[in-house]
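Posting for a labmate who doesn't have an account.
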Amino acid sequence: MEATGVGRAIGFCWLFVLIFQKDVLTNGYNYKQQFSISTNSNIGVAFTSSVVAKQGLPAGTVAARYKYNNTVINVEVSKHSNISATLTSRDILPYTNYIASFKLPYSSSSELKVQYVHDHAAFTMSIALKRSPEVELSATIGALSTAFGVEAKYKTSSSVFTKYNAGINVTKPDFDASIILADKGDLLTASYVHYLNQQKRIATVAEITRRFSTSENTFTVGGSCAVDHMTVVKARLNNHGKLGTFMQHEIRPKSYLIICGEVDAKALDKIPRIGLALALKL
């Protein structure tokens, strides 16, 4: 989806959270062993099979994706024959997406979601499809380089708000910054990313969190570097001594080898955590 304004650029739900900041500090740091294969057909059907080994126990999933015009259907079958399906349509009204998700045999996890995204505003409403539904709302407005967003979840059975969060995001050509108040006002997160070149191939990130209920502070720094058009490396370190590393290499078009590692600098006698993932697209 191409961005034509603040509303489109910041996405759908929790849109003001900086994607690049979260990518450097969280995305990809997976300490499991994973192997997946994807194939595409000429009629718009894609299949993905994956096996994940965690703590020595393998688990497999099979997923299928079908796209026709502006409608997408995703179906996934995991271990124990759990089935999840998602239908996404953009054909009904302009600027609006409709998403219906179903899970079997746990049908209480199914939900219906409506997303409206315009140039300077975005709104999402989600309703859980069960006897006592929960309604989740999120909205973002912005202009030029600043965006503000709020999010809340209301439980109809007890008539209480189980979640409410708010945040603000500032985007400039050479930096992004955000402040988020989450967990019903208990968690405050401030993050900043600075780009060291115009292509944003090298970046540094700093994030500090404060949990008021426990008076706990966490400070994390990280960096990302695109070594070339096929290889990306990242690293992060927090004040608790956890050092994480990440490397992704494109071994062929849309096929990736990912290696991750984590070391606890305050407990060097512990065995480092190592993750390996191989994703092939045929």
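Reply:
Got it, the structure tokens are right above this. The helical segments are 6-9, 19-25.
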